[in-house]
Specification:
By secondary structure, this protein is mainly α. The chain is 67% helix and 0% strand. The C terminus is likely disordered.
Length: 439
């Protein structure tokens, strides 16, 4: 194993070329049609192109919610150049390249170059970084903003703190989990100030960056749309999905069926604000009536986030909608032959190979991470160098588990887990034990 890893590191430039050439070929010749959230973002962008405006358009007032406004506007700009889903794929390849570059640079700030190269290798072998280019989701762009904000934060200058706040706030305009990073930065700086460190100017600089972005983006939306919007408004809907009699801890839309507490008779007649207030009231009311049941769902939410990791596999294998839970359920029901009904046999083979390789690699990474954490007794969590990242993960997860768990929700955190794992793997390559007590 040691020789194989060293060989891969020695040829990492060639691997990078293969990695990105492969993605371009996937986008050009293997792009499946968009479904679910990917299709929804695409439809929102097409609406805006139709009405010659940016998102949200007036027509979106009666949607169920406003979703990822900054990301949808990036998609609109891309579609102005070429109105095809392939342009989104090409954009994703570029975003993935930028994400990998930022990931490598952050790794160099936290570790040495050898560990950074190992982290880069581990990053490329994580199949979801490849499969993501075939989807139209917020994860790539969101992670770019998070990584950029962290890199500026670690530069430790007044200007860089301002830029860090700016990018952290921009991440909120893509996904509400960005609030986790904003709070992490503020908490770290407040603790430093309380320790008599000269960080008061840094605190005001980062707060200024956050405030300027939110005010600027919200004001622009207020002028164009009529409402001060700088982030998604799907919080109430997600809250209700995780707080009802049919809640499972995962996504379950039964709560919106007729006769359920989330059902709305004529949704087209209500604005997204009215629907949001209605769903928020129903969700909060259910939690107050069933606090223990709601709390009991938290382990299941974490389970669905961290045990499952196949959110890009259906797209990579062209078996849309075939996630591991559904696959196992159909086998247990004796419906093995129906799983790939109407699909060519070679797609079934591709699906099995990708699924198995992905899970072997995923659990390998997670086991190293967990054993390393246990061996070090969590000491690196309290390391000042890692505190903004650790706080972001903890706060981001806290925001997520209020709603429901999903495998792809962990993607922003997974890259940081890979970052942490690169240290014991690098130590192993150097001939040391995989797990030591050194941080």
């Amino acid at each position: 194993m040691n020789k194989i890893l060293n060989y891969l590191l020695e040829n990492i430039s060639k691997i990078i070329v293969i990695y990105f050439v492969g993605q371009v070929l996937l986008v050009l010749f293997w792009q499946p049609p968009f479904t679910s959230d990917s299709l929804y973002y695409y439809r929102l962008a097409q609406d805006c192109l139709k009405y010659h405006c940016f998102y949200p358009a007036k027509v979106h007032l009666y949607e169920d919610y406003i979703s990822a406004p900054l990301y949808v506007n990036i998609i609109i700009i891309a579609l102005l150049f070429c109105n095809s889903i392939k342009i989104i794929g090409i954009l994703n390849v570029l975003l993935n390249a930028l994400q990998m570059y930022l990931f490598f640079n952050l790794s160099k700030k936290l570790f040495d170059r050898k560990i950074s190269l190992v982290s880069l290798l581990l990053y490329m072998f994580y199949l979801n970084t490849v499969g993501m280019v075939l989807l139209n989701l917020t994860e790539l762009f969101f992670e770019i903003l998070i990584l950029t904000a962290l890199i500026f934060f670690y530069k430790n200058s007044i200007n860089s703190f301002f830029l860090s706040g700016l990018f952290a706030a921009a991440s909120i305009a893509v996904r509400p989990m960005g609030w986790g990073l904003v709070l992490a930065f503020l908490i770290v700086l407040i603790i430093k100030i309380m320790k008599k460190e000269k960080m008061l100017k840094a605190f005001f600089a980062i707060t200024l960056g956050i405030s300027i972005f939110i005010l600027a983006y919200g004001t622009i939306t207020k002028i164009s749309f009529g409402a001060f919007i700088f982030s998604s408004s799907n919080g109430p809907l997600n809250l209700l999905i995780g707080a009802n009699d049919d809640a499972t801890g995962a996504f379950n839309a039964k709560v919106f069926d007729r006769g359920k507490i989330g059902y709305i008779e004529n949704p087209a007649a209500m604005t997204y604000i009215e629907k949001g207030k209605y769903w928020e009231e129903k969700g909060e009311s259910w939690i107050l009536k069933h606090p223990l049941k709601w709390l009991s769902l938290i382990p299941r939410k974490i389970f669905f986030m961290f045990i499952l990791d196949d959110f890009t596999i259906p797209s990579l294998s062209h078996i849309n909608g075939m996630y591991l839970p559904k696959f196992v359920k159909m086998i247990l029901q004796g419906k093995l032959l129906q799983i790939f009904a109407g699909k060519p046999f070679y797609l079934a083979i591709i699906y099995f190979i990708i699924l198995i390789l992905n899970y072997i690699y995923y659990f390998y990474i997670m086991l190293i991470f967990l054993f390393s954490l246990i061996k070090k007794k969590g000491s690196w969590i309290f390391n000042n160098k890692f505190s903004p990242i650790i706080l972001f993960i903890l706060l981001g997860l806290s925001i997520t588990i209020i709603a429901f768990g999903d495998a792809r929700f962990k993607y922003p955190y997974m890259l940081f887990i890979i970052l942490f794992v690169s240290q014991p793997v690098s130590r192993y390559l150097a001939g040391s034990k995989l797990f030591t007590n050194k941080t």
